[in-house]
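Why should sequence recovery work at all? Because a backbone constrains its sequence more than one might expect. Tight turns favour small or flexible residues, buried strands favour hydrophobic ones, and helices have their own preferences. The token representation captures these environments compactly. In the example below, the structure is given first.
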């Protein structure tokens, strides 16, 4: 009889262990494959920057900014097909279907495609209160014409439109600095770029709208679109730049942006690259790594193009949707994908080299 009780006890313990193992395994499977990504909810008074994955394996920019009651969208790439992905992400946060500010940095598809679909662009899907965009462009084609038409429709529906130059000059009701918190603690500043009012025939990138957010007196967050080195020189010369907590890598981490002189001024603590590593552009470049490494290793990348990448169709998350949150307790980073920083990733180890003078 005692033997039978011992046997039953062993069976019970074994079954309990099996149950626990299955429960733990089930939890991980559910979280990896079935659980919907929950929106990040930073503390009141914080500002958060959401670098979105864009539903394909093509490099492009779209950043959502949440500051108090303000919903801000900077760019909407990488392709027209990214619109549903961007909308699905925004809808977790934009509860009133209104974007207080939309900033369109320049007229390249990987930055503004989501605003160019006639009768189906993000301008049609959301009420946009203020649109700030590039004063100059070399574009004349159908995509640009669609953008102009969509923007015009949004203005007819009540939106206010300013160029970045109007903002900098504070003309026609535009502001250089927008108070996002009501008490001056969180602000959005439109910086001056020489190429807001001087044509540059070689590259559309230098027309990029540049904006800096501030949280308190110390925390700065810098966005320069695809500005190239010559444009970065103008930012240094015409603006009072200083060290920043966050820098969105210029031009997806290309050779021609994030110049040595520019990085020496801003010395970023965190850098996020909106790109699809491994695609045909091969971002981020080794030159970019060499330049930024002396200042930070806290670099994150949204997306990775798969080895069978074809026309931007195949991709997986790298760090996924990267959210940088600034609150009273400090600046933190949350990722929907891997939390691994770029230099410790398998892709980087196989394809790039961290310089000896890097942090």
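From this structural description, the recovered sequence reads:
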């Amino acid at each position: 009889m005692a033997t039978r009780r011992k046997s039953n006890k062993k069976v019970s313990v074994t079954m309990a262990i099996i149950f626990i193992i299955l429960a733990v395994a089930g939890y991980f499977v559910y979280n990896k494959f079935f659980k919907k990504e929950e929106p990040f909810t930073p503390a009141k008074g914080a500002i958060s920057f959401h670098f979105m994955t864009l539903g394909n394996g093509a490099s492009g920019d779209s950043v959502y900014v949440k500051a108090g009651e303000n919903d801000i969208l900077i760019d909407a790439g990488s392709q027209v097909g990214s619109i549903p992905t961007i909308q699905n992400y925004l809808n977790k946060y934009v509860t009133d279907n209104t974007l207080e500010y939309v900033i369109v940095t320049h007229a390249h598809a990987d930055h503004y495609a989501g605003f160019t679909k006639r009768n189906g662009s993000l301008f049609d899907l959301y009420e946009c209160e203020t649109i700030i965009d590039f004063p100059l462009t070399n574009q004349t084609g159908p995509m640009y014409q669609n953008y102009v038409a969509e923007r015009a429709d949004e203005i007819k529906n009540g939106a206010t439109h300013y160029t970045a130059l109007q903002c900098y000059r504070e003309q026609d009701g535009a502001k250089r600095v927008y108070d996002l918190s009501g008490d001056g603690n969180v602000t959005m500043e439109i910086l001056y770029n020489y190429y807001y009012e001087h044509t540059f025939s070689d590259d559309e990138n230098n027309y990029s709208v540049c904006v800096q957010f501030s949280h308190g007196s110390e925390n700065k967050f810098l966005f320069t679109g695809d500005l190239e080195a010559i444009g970065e020189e103008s930012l240094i010369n015409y603006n009072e730049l200083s060290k920043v907590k966050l820098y969105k890598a210029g031009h997806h981490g290309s050779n021609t942006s994030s110049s040595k002189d520019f990085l020496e001024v801003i010395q970023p603590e965190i850098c996020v690259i909106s790109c699809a590593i491994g695609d045909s552009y091969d971002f981020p470049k080794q030159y970019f790594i060499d330049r930024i490494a002396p200042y930070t290793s806290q670099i994150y990348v949204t997306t990775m193009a798969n080895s069978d990448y074809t026309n931007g169709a195949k991709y997986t998350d790298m760090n996924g949707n990267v959210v940088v949150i600034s609150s009273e307790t400090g600046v933190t980073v949350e990722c929907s994908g891997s939390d691994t920083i770029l230099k410790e990733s398998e892709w980087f180890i196989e394809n790039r080299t961290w310089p000896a003078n890097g942090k």
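A few observations help interpret the result. The longest strand covers residues 270-277.
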